[in-house]
Design goal:
This protein has twelve helices and ten strands. With 270 residues, the chain is of the alpha/beta class. The strands form two sheets. The chain has a six-stranded parallel sheet with strand order 4-3-1-2-9-10, sandwiched between helices. Strands 6-5-7-8 form a four-stranded parallel sheet, sandwiched between helices. Helix 9 packs across helix 10. The structure holds D-glutamic acid. D-glutamic acid binds next to helix 4. Keywords: Cell shape, Cell wall biogenesis/degradation, Isomerase, Peptidoglycan synthesis.
């Protein structure tokens, strides 16, 4: 009896959240490391970009999202695959909900440990770049090194549109990476989960001497370790359901392009 009950609990899904398709860059790493977990991927595309919202707005969005995932999908854990939402809401979410939670923060620590030139750069949304979280990360790990902190308005929106070959992407990247290119930065922190999808375009601009550092694998490892600690690892089939508050058709099209396999999302009204 106990075993059956335990198994049932283990197979409940993990909620993975982003404002849009960017969180898929974290999701692919979760999927690789945890193939037996069932996932519900949720994108709040009605409200994207989060990077231009206030803390008050973000907290309101996130309460609605977690309530929905908890009540309708009975999630056992919540992964915030969004730096902006993590920076401004994770404290409040942890206080409000009892379930284990994983947040995504710009990977300043490994970048600062890996730099040989003594200069690193962080690119993120305007909100993240101005957040207390990033200031604290720079304070904690930026000692004795130069840290360029660059807020990139609109960059996530180019990924939302899906066409990564678009000249607009290159134009924006050149603008935001100008300072990086003119410095001796050797580690670039991708502080928004949309940006790993721009890796090839970024590498073309900065060349091979700059290492691009994202949080995907670390988030996946942390998620696995929390599942182990709470003894809630799944032995399930590894299913994924996708939901968006925006257009299901648009999400499905862009997500299918980014992940290179067919994805079908459902629209949800919160
Ligand atoms: N992908 C999100 C992040 O990591 C934010 C994108 C947005 O501005 O909505 O910060």
């Amino acid at each position: 009896m106990l075993d059956i009950k335990k198994k049932k609990i283990n197979n409940r899904p993990i909620g993975v959240f982003d404002s849009g398709v960017g969180g898929l860059s974290i999701f692919v790493e979760l999927k690789k490391l945890l193939p037996h977990e069932n996932f519900v991927f949720f994108a709040d595309q009605k409200n994207v970009p989060y990077g231009e919202k206030s803390k008050k707005e973000l907290v309101g969005f996130m309460y609605k999202v977690v309530d929905y995932l908890k009540d309708k999908h009975d999630i056992k854990m919540f992964v915030i695959a969004c730096n902006t939402a993590t920076c401004f809401t994770i404290k409040g979410l942890r206080a409000r909900y009892a379930m284990p939670m994983v947040g995504t923060e710009p990977a300043v620590k490994p970048a600062s440990q890996g730099t040989k030139t003594g200069t690193i750069a962080i690119i993120s949304t305007p909100a993240t770049s101005k957040s207390k979280t990033v200031k604290k990360l720079i304070n904690d790990y930026g000692n004795g090194i130069t840290v360029l902190n660059i807020g990139c308005k609109n960059l996530e929106n180019t990924v939302e549109k899906g066409n990564l070959e678009n000249p607009e992407v290159n134009k924006l990247l050149r603008k935001y990476l100008k300072e990086v290119k003119n410095s001796n930065t050797d580690q670039l922190v991708l502080g928004c989960t949309h940006y790993p999808f721009l890796k090839i375009a970024i590498e073309k601009i900065l060349g091979p001497s700059v290492k691009l550092v994202d949080s995907g694998q670390a988030i996946a490892r942390h998620t696995r370790s929390l599942l182990q600690t709470h003894k809630i690892l799944s032995k399930g089939k590894g299913t994924t359901a996708y939901f968006t508050t925006g257009s299901a058709k648009k999400f499905s099209k862009v997500a299918s392009e980014l992940l290179k396999h067919k994805i079908k999302a459902n629209k949800i009204k919160l």
